[in-house]
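Quick note —
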Amino acid sequence: MSKIEEEGFLSNESEDGKSHLIEKYSDFFEFAREMNRLCMKLLSELRIDWEDKHKLITHTLFIRTVENYQGVYLLLERGMMAQAKVLTRSMLEALFTLVALQKKPKLLASYLDQHEESYRRGLKAAMKFKSKSLKEAAKMHGLEKRYIEKKQELKNRELKALSPIEWAIEAELEDYYNVYYVTYSNSIHSNLSALDDHIDETKDDINLSMGPSDIDLYDVLKCGIFILLNAANSIELVNGNDISSKLHEYENRFEELESKHA
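Predicted structure written out below.
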């Protein structure tokens, strides 16, 4: 059996070790799976209208949120805390946009402007390639021509793309931004505070470490569950359904877990 010291998280030892975490947080993981089953059921009931951009985009954001939640779950099973935080931050960004679009459909114009701005920046970045092979690839695909065309197209347009904090404000989820998004952004950017995940300290010694951990596991999975609850509520409201009473049942059960694990 390969050891963590030899292959890290790719080792058999790491794979076998997830059973310890699942057992330690068995009730919490099972509740998280139940939330996932609820959202998978909601996904199966979605009816895509390809002519309705608002519904199409909100439905797709919900799919992305559920898939990312499943990714976070799999990472937490293996004690991959830093990676789970990175993916949770991505979930939050999708949530802010989904909830804001549900509450204020007119913001769809800002979402589409965000795409235009991102596409323009991508083409502009291609104009700065340094390596010979990248320059040849850009020329072969006509990226300079595309950039000029896109720049001209947007010349007299005022794009109103929103930043993550602006989406959070429109969604009335500023606390999620200030508590979770800001914190987990440290993990994405490898800020010094985020590197604490790799510090193993006891009263007698301190070392750098790599491998499974459950530090912050509860908080990360709790955040993921909160995101899923909000996303499920919003996507059903987009479709004219009210499942708030059912979601309140999950919230009440979660409070029982909170008293045990917090």
